[in-house]
Write a structure and sequence with these properties.
Length: 734
């Protein structure tokens, strides 16, 4: 029996290489696609070659399986070649196995050739998981050939097979991502493509090539392909016909659907889970971030205090590859796209360390109909639009904030990077919140329950911190003041705050504390906090306390933006609504509703209650300067989400207030970049322009060191290597 299989395989291989159509679909056409895609998409840049190899490999698999197996099997039956085997002991299975092996022998050398060309011509690195990649490809070839054999089993003529194979081939070619990136598809079409086998071939192969995934990572696609191969081969054996005179009823063509059952199941599951759709989006984002770019002839603010007056930055694979000062290489030698930056300034992306993402920052007239999820998504897009490339949300409903963080930080959706402290640690007895004003009571109570943690003992505090660590928050926030910014929460007992701080330090979570006066700051420092939010708007913080903060490296975040906004809101001043970047990035209905609310006589009492909050901007600025003079590390936060502090261009206004207060511009910029990254424990990834860090950069018209308002003149945003099309960002909301 073994000799029979070997003999059939040899014969099949010999016949296959004699047929021009086999050579065309397995070698010439895939190579043609490869070179066309490679030249058109600049395959020499970053991970582009990896994407093209994945796409063209799948194109070849489709041709090998549908035409090389399906069409050829029908032709052999029509030419009465199969009839010769009918009188021998050979059954259908050896013939089909021989055909499958032949398909692999014919196609896999082409794949090896393409990898070699991509490596030599376009600098594509040979993947570490090359063996498992070839195993995945081999299973893909076998599965698609099984589909082709099923078509051959149920059609009655070459003409019928040609029609069905063309429909399958064209459908899978154009809808799977093998020829057009699925990122350009509308949501409904992207969902429909999950029922197509080739879609899962593309996703699995891209995952292995681009993200170095293992077979375990692509096991769903891998086993679906195996199931298809088994089902298709089994049915092809059962429905096998030796002679062209043996006809099938038209209804027999429905058996083709049976071989697609694994992918129908996958598509149905993905309609609910969105797992493969999400993965496809993330892969597309990874590929967009892999481009190679050279920003040249720019002023470069490194982020650590150093400035290069005329230099260049090379970005490759989503990271900073090199920084040049003086002699700048030719972009052609670097195989890079050129971004001319003469007269412009390049600097790290800005960071806002204090926002409240679930609060809108303005007045919502129809709060019951307001989509808070969409509001948060718009906010994250607005930050990125404004060059604020990382934000820390300090006090939000846990489930909601962690879910949206996962969507954006994974790359599924495009918006600024989000860090979250989760809920507030506070004392019992607080009531109401400006954030949830106007919400239905049941929703408000549910959000408030997730919005706070109220420990009754040190052991309670420890368990709550441990729970948040397990859930995956990035930080812990404590409240040491009542009546904070319109949110009425009671002051946490200092002993309980110490318990929270001790456990946060033990599990590696930085704790930051909301304070309102000197006493609060003192209690927070004793509790081993990593950061102070607001400091005091009421009294002068003693130099000795600032020196204690400097000694242990506690970050100070003065949030002058909210200190400015509260009095302006109380006075009915509309100036903060008129900032250019605010008008560009804030939702139009939110701006309009806020304007009407501020100017309406009916809201005078609400504005007065906000105005009663004790804020002295001069005290706030004086505390900032004393913190600076005493060596306290400074970071920028706006308290966005409070009235008139709109999500988006927050850091720009905060830094303008700092410079007005007397903080040197270079110091202020470092607070908004490298210092903030250090406070987030992310300085190894971003915050400064250094080799190996993520390529998250801003290109500005003008020089912010000469005029801090130049931070609002954004001409280019690069986020983790991806050029952000700012005009397209808000279309994600639709």
């Amino acid at each position: 029996m073994t000799k029979a299989y070997i003999s059939l395989i040899r014969n099949e291989i010999r016949l296959a290489f004699r047929q021009k159509i086999v050579i065309f679909f397995n070698y010439l056409m895939p190579l043609l696609f490869f070179f066309i895609f490679a030249q058109a998409n600049h395959a020499e840049q970053g991970g582009v070659a990896l994407e093209i190899v994945a796409m063209v490999t799948v194109i070849g698999i489709l041709g090998n399986g549908l035409f090389g197996a399906g069409m050829r099997a029908v032709q052999e039956r029509e030419a009465n070649i199969l009839r010769r085997f009918k009188v021998t002991p050979t059954g259908p299975l050896p013939l089909l196995v021989a055909a499958a092996v032949t398909g692999l022998v014919v196609y896999l050398p082409y794949v090896a050739l393409m990898f070699f060309i991509a490596h030599v011509n376009y600098g594509m690195p040979i993947p570490d998981n090359i063996v498992t990649i070839f195993l995945f490809i081999a299973v893909g070839v076998t599965a698609i050939r099984a589909i082709g054999l099923m078509v051959a089993a149920v059609v009655n003529s070459v003409q019928e097979s040609a029609i069905i194979i063309q429909v399958l081939y064209i459908g899978m070619l154009f809808l799977s991502g093998a020829s057009f990136p699925t990122g350009m598809f509308p949501a409904w079409l992207l969902t429909a493509t999950q029922f197509i086998p080739a879609t899962h071939l593309v996703t699995g192969l891209k995952g292995m090539l681009v993200r170095n995934e293992s077979l375990m990572d692509v096991r769903v696609q891998f086993f679906a392909l195996i199931a298809t191969a088994v089902i298709g081969t089994f049915l092809a054996v059962k429905l096998f016909r030796w002679e062209k005179e043996e006809k099938m009823r038209p209804a027999a063509k429905l058996w083709i659907l049976a071989v697609l059952i694994p992918f129908v199941a996958l598509g149905a599951w993905d309609m609910k889970s969105k797992e493969n759709i999400t993965k496809s989006k993330i892969l597309e984002r990874d590929l967009m971030r892999s481009r190679t770019r050279l920003f040249r002839n720019a002023r470069i603010i490194i982020g650590n205090g150093k400035v290069i007056e005329n230099g260049a930055v090379l970005v490759k694979g989503g990271r900073i590859e090199a920084i040049y000062e003086g002699n700048i290489p030719d972009p052609k030698d670097l195989k890079a796209d050129t971004v001319e930056a003469a007269g412009k300034t390049i600097m790290p992306g800005l960071v806002d360390m204090h926002i409240h993402l679930t609060a809108p920052g303005g007045f919502i007239e129809n709060a019951k109909d307001y989509d808070y999820q969409k509001g948060m998504e718009h906010a994250l897009a607005a930050y990125l639009y404004s060059g604020v490339t990382a934000v820390r949300s300090v006090g939000d409903p846990e489930t909601q904030i962690l879910k949206i963080r996962a969507s954006y930080n994974s790359g599924e959706k495009l918006g600024t990077e989000l860090f979250s402290c989760g809920p507030l640690f506070t004392a019992a007895g607080g009531h109401g919140t400006e954030y949830f004003r106007g919400m239905p009571d049941n929703i408000k109570q549910s959000l408030l329950a997730e919005f706070t943690r109220i420990p009754k003992s040190a052991e309670d505090a420890k368990k709550m911190v441990d729970g948040l660590k397990t859930d995956g928050v990035d930080c812990i926030k404590g409240v040491m003041e009542s009546g904070a910014g319109g949110v009425v929460f009671n002051r946490l007992d200092p002993l309980l705050l110490k318990a929270v701080g001790a456990e946060a330090a033990a599990v590696g979570l930085p704790m930051t504390v909301h304070t309102g006066d000197t006493r609060d700051v003192m209690d927070a420092v004793e509790a081993r906090t990593a950061g102070i939010e607001h400091g005091s708007f009421q009294d002068r913080i003693p130099d000795g306390l600032f020196q204690a903060m400097a000694k242990v490296g506690i970050f100070y975040d003065p949030t002058l933006s909210v200190a400015e906004a509260f009095p302006q809101f109380a006075a009915g001043n509309l100036d903060l609504l008129s900032r250019s970047l605010v008008m560009q990035s804030a939702p139009k209905e939110l701006l309009a509703g806020t304007k009407r609310m501020i100017t309406s006589p009916e809201t005078k009492a609400i504005r007065k209650s906000i105005g009663d909050y004790p804020i002295d901007m001069n005290v706030a600025k004086e505390n900032l300067l004393h913190a600076l003079r005493n060596g306290v590390p400074l970071v920028t936060g706006s308290d966005a989400g409070n009235m008139l502090v709109f999500h988006g261009p927050t850091v720009q206004r905060e830094l303008q207030l700092w410079v007005e207060a007397g903080v040197p511009t270079g110091v202020a910029l470092q607070a908004a970049t490298l210092n903030a990254a250090k406070a987030l424990h992310a300085e190894n990834r971003f915050g400064s322009i250094e080799k190996g860090k993520e390529a998250t950069l801003l290109m500005l018209d003008g020089n912010p060191l000469e005029n801090i308002k130049a931070l609002e003149n954004i001409s280019y945003v690069l986020f983790k290597g991806e050029h952000v099309d700012r005009t397209e960002l808000f279309k994600q909301d639709k």
